Amino acid sequence: MKGRKLLMIPGPIEFEPEVLRAMGMATTSHIAPNFIAVFGNSLELMREVWQSPTGQPFIVAGTGTLAMDMAAANLIEQGDHVLVISSGYFGKRFKDILDRYGANTTILEAPIGEIVSIEAIENELKTGKYKALTITHVDTSTGILMHPKPIAQLAKKYGVLTILDGVCSVAGEEIKQDEWGIDVVLTGSQKAIGVPPGLALLMASQKAIDVFKNRQTPVGSYYSDWGNWLPIMKAYEERKPSYFGTPAVNLIVALETSLKKICKEGMDNRVKRHQNLAKAFRAAIASLNLEIIPKSNQIAANTLTAAYYPKGIDGAALRAKIAEKNVIVAGGLLAEIKTSYFRIGHMGSVSPNDLVAVLSALECALLELGQPIESGISLQSFQNELMQTD
Ligand code: PMP
Q1: Biggest alpha carbon distance in the chain?
Q2: Which terminus in the chain has less CB density within 10 A, N or C?
Q3: Which residues, including other chains, have CB under 8 Å from residue 97's CB and lie 6 or more apart?
Q4: Ligand 1 neighbour 166 (Cβ under 6 A)
Q5: How far apart, in whole angstroms, are the C-alpha atoms of residue 97 and residue 132?
Q6: Is the pTM of this model over 0.85?
Q7: Is the CB of 193 within 6 Å of ligand 1?
Q8: Ligand 1 centroid to 138 CA: how many Å?
Q9: Residue nearest to atom 8 of ligand 1 (CA)
Q10: 64 ligand 1 Cβ < 6 A
């Protein structure tokens, strides 16, 4: 670890050595029997992580944005109405993608730090015009958590498909795709899934697959077309060779390794670990008089924390001082407040030790910049809070 900086941004994250070692194995043919088994296992393990025994998993080379693109390209046709429930930068991205495929989008946004109310969502759905709605589970630009369950229930009531951008939540926040009736849950590999960037991962409900199969018009993107990928996923799951676009062999070997580790920890334990660490971290941040973007802890993500810089502090200087102490945190992303806040990722295999290192570096940097805080206060708050959790 000597000389290595701890990567505490909201993706890519710190990866398990075992996962990185798996990635470094000699590349095999994509139809070698051992790789077919790895691919098939990964598809099956995804169902466990997504809690979707009846879902159709997709593993495709690309990023989280490709997974968003796939949902839009395959489910939406020209003129379809889609409701985008946004809590930051990535809600707007979903609207852009949907618009590109000819959707008629309506975006619901709340003031920064707040979420759209369930009443506002129901008022829109009552119009009866929507085919689908999208939710950003955790918007990485604001650190806001939207609870998908009540929205998915409403969507079901009005016969609307639910698409969840889980890029910053899958394998970190609670998701029960089948039980909650969500039609698409998508992510990228580099966040709580714990695999270096390069895989788009998506789980579609049977209803979503039926909607795709009953399209009137062809899918507008060749690469994203489920028609090309469905037979491939089915073949690998049946442990048969198949080809459409060359799979990212090494990344998929790493994915199987990481998914196995996730399932070994168990989803309930994993979600609880994220919740406990995030709660303690927020207490520590508050002890430094730093204000987080979400207006209440109920809507604060457990995979990252976004906090405003103290008044009068230059954000770039603060982050540079933190980096000098071998910890990397991220700057702001939401255009309106970009230079006034920063973000710390705490997902995947994150441990209390990682967060102690972040808090120590942050506290020292704040002290060096003349902030009137008590040395050790955040470490004490973090530890006290953590010791109270079960
Ligand atoms: N949605 C959310 C919530 C994200 O955090 C990100 C990435 N930060 C994306 C979508 C896009 O994913 P990618 O960068 O892997 O394309």
Answers
A1: 64
A2: C
A3: 65, 68, 69, 72
A4: no
A5: 14
A6: yes
A7: no
A8: 10
A9: 140
A10: yes
Distances (CA, A) of 24 to 11, 18, 223, 250: 20, 10, 27, 7
> Per residue in 48-79, pLDDT tens?
999 999 999 999 999 999 999 999 999 999 99
How many C-alpha atoms does 37 have within 13 Å on its Cβ side? 5
pLDDT reported for residue 3:
74
What is the side-by-side order of every strand in the sheet holding 81-86? 56-61, 199-204, 184-188, 161-165, 130-136, 81-86, 104-109
Q: Find the DSSP H helices in the chain.
A: 17-23, 33-50, 64-75, 89-100, 118-125, 148-157, 177-180, 206-213, 226-237, 249-265, 267-287, 315-324, 352-368, 377-388
> In this structure, are strands 130-136 and 138-139 parallel, antiparallel, or unpaired?
unpaired
- Tell me if 62 CB under 6 Å of ligand 1: no
CA of 322 to the centre of ligand 1 (A): 24
Contacts of 303 (CB under 8 A, 6+ apart): 10, 138, 168, 169, 172, 173, 191, 192, 274, 278, 345, 346, 347
**Predicted confidence (pLDDT) per residue in 120-168, tens digit:** 999 999 999 999 999 999 999 999 999 999 999 999 999 999 999 999 9
Q: What would the two tokens of residue 187 be?
A: 């992510």
pLDDT, position 4: 86
**Whether the bond into 247 is cis, omega within 30 of 0:** no
**Element spanning 83, H or E:** strand 81-86
Amino acid in position 105 = T
Residues in the chain: 390
Rounded Cα gap, residues 166 and 220, in angstroms: 23
Is 94's C-beta closer than 6 angstroms to any atom of ligand 1? Answer: no
